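Q: Second attempt. The first request was missing the SMILES, so the protein and magnesium ion are both included now.
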Amino acid sequence: MLPTVCDLEEPYRRFMEPAYRIAIEAGGLILEVYDDDHQVSYKDDRSPITRADRASHHHITQALQASFPDIPVLSEEAELPDFQVRRDYSRFWLIDPLDGTREFVNRNDEFTVNIALIEGTRAVLGVVHVPVSGQTFFGAAGQGAWLAERDGTARRLACVRPTSERALRIGVSRSHPDPRLTEFLNHLDAPQSVPLGSSLKFCRIAEGQVDLYPRMHPLREWDVAAAQVITEEAGGVVWDWQARPLTYNKEVMKHDGGFLAAAGSGLAERILAGSR
Ligand SMILES: Nc1ncnc2c1ncn2[C@@H]1O[C@H](COP(=O)(O)O)[C@@H](OP(=O)(O)O)[C@H]1O
Ligand SMILES: [Mg+2]
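A: Got both inputs this time. The predicted holo structure:
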């Protein structure tokens, strides 16, 4: 059940209630494998996959389909429908059943379950659950973002604007270093790097603990969708490097040029102006 302090309304409440519950259930399945001796195999693109990715994928897919038989579910762990078919979807679920598989394999706890609802080409609802901490971040377009703790208490999320008195805190991938990002950081005034796995980098912006999350190389749409809604609904922005909002259900489901997530549009504009 959604936390009682959460005053989320329709049209998104009917989607959020099951999505929130299903993300937490999937987190429970992931933890059963995490506490066990998990075996890793590798996909064609050499990224790791475990029994936990598969268990989470099957549960989320089946449970969303049971609640919403008419809404397609697209997942990192399943073959995507042809673009000719999915381009006509007015609404679909986009899931990353275990984001941060490398963090899972390395046992550093920084992995998440991500469920997003896409309408047209926009991400409009997102749930990011963190199995180890039991925290669940969630938000819906125009209504705000919340953080629920394992014990059911919850609070609204709001980004914190950086001040000139302190260093900018930059969320960076813990497991996928990028030389272009290092070069970009060299142009900022003594930034403080905050290494984090998975979509947690977006969530920390929404919590006010990180100011920026710049990404130069492509990420898949499912790595971003749910957490983008949470960042935006906490007052942040997630733009491409031309200051345009990210779009979804593209022919290739990637954000090709990367993106800039920031704790506010003013900060993002300042950073983009400096990077040109
Ligand atoms: N260069 C790249 N191209 C495509 N996906 C990438 C990538 N670098 C990282 N990713 C994916 O982005 C997700 C989060 O990575 P990071 O912790 O670096 O932010 C991971 O997803 P999965 O764990 O779901 O496969 C990872 O596979
Ligand atoms: Mg992922």
